[in-house]
Amino acid sequence: MASLGQVTSTQVVLKMWRCKIAKSGSGPGDRKPLKLPLCDILVCQLLTHRAFKMNSPLGIQTPEHSSNPRYLFRQPRALQWFHNGRLVKRHDCERAAGRFELFLDLLYVAILSNFADTLVEDISGAKLVKYILILAPSWHVWSDLREIMNSFYNDDLLQRVLILWVMAILVIYGNNAPLVDEEIGAMRATVGAYMVARISCNLAHLLYSFSSYHHRRQQRLWVVLSTLFICLYIPLYFESVSTRAKIAVAAIAICVEEATWIFCYCPAAKKLLHATYTTAVDINHEIDRYAAFYIIVLGEFLYLIVVGSHAAIGLNERTIRAIWTLVIAFCLNWIYVHADGSVTHEHPLRHSIYTAFLFALIHLPLVASLLAGGHVAAASVAEKDFEDAERWLLCGGLGTGMICLYGFALLHGTKDDRGTLIMDKHLRLIMRPITGIITILIPLAHHLNATEVLSIIMALFVFCLLVPGASDQQRAL
């Protein structure tokens, strides 16, 4: 017998009607109206309401989300969680990124462009280290907001003010971070802005832990450890600390923060806390947010090939470089979207906890490398030729990005039967690391000019698309 939770309101009404027909001896051809007693009508309504409630996802009824959405404040509630290892969701619908999350991304367009500009103006090993050390903290702040919106998104005034507040702090961070090696005031403003942004997000987590018990233990563990380890940045305030020591402190602090995030949300922490309710993520929303940030980075390829009209007046070498840069960005987007090229695959966030963590971690080197390489590629439209440093940054960035995309594809679990495609997964993907290595080594050919370098890179990236594309022909067989 089906449980009540599996009975729809229509089935309830139909069963009661059939029951009355059977008792009254009426048949389908009898047009005499059937009168139900008031008590039967009330019971029918009660059962209908109960059936609707049980039909909501996993028994979770959320009438407040179907009411008038015009409100100022709402109690933050976890949108999904694990209960003794069983996933429970408050809504049974796909979530997309909120409009204010996309508004946040617009600010990151400017911040990332500013960081890349600073690197390309004076390329050196020290500048590259600084670029990585100022990019990683901005990524951490974006990740904090992503997690809050993923788990507790309710789009009320409090959350909107939080986004605006953090964005205002990021404006300070984005303006001062490129100058940290020049002025102690810029260093202090940068570190202070970062610490305030992280603490603001931690306070939001702490507040939400009182409002909803589903993520409470892990949230509070994260708040305590994250706030504690953010104090590692305090030595950066002091002018007496040498630059090398500050670099070491910043690098250690960034690594510790990454390790802390992994620990707080890993199975070991759940066992340590003896938590019945543990955190879960909305996978579709998470995928959309990472893809949105990746698109921001690819936008760096496209902005400079148009701004300034450097490729104007007919078809010339600069026009060719602009088009090749566009093709490279298009290929990178295609490769990211199609991952390993399988007909049916399992996303890393669904595959296992380990692939989920690796999926999140691999985005930072992926973003950093493509942002730097893409900026040089786009800037080449306004220049006659590359300098040696620009050549190495371009090829090193794009080559490293392609290798990261290879690792990104390996994290996806294929569900295709053997022979579904002409080439198996590893054979389809093997050209990505090969292409990445060749791209990194291109600067060794000193005789190549800017147009020739971009032409070779474009051809290699297009070939990486053609290899899995050829294997897709098996689908039509």
Automatic annotation (TrEMBL):
Domain of life: Eukaryota
KW Magnesium (keyword) present: no
Transmembrane residue ranges: 157-174, 186-208, 220-238, 290-313, 319-339, 351-371, 391-409, 429-447, 453-471
Keywords (A to Z) from UniProt: Membrane, Transmembrane, Transmembrane helix
Keyword Kinase: no
A matching Pfam family: LtrA
PANTHER family, per database record: BLL5714 PROTEIN
Protein name: Uncharacterized protein
Organism for this UniProt entry: Penicillium atrosanguineum
Lineage summary: Eukaryota, Fungi, Dikarya, Ascomycota, Pezizomycotina
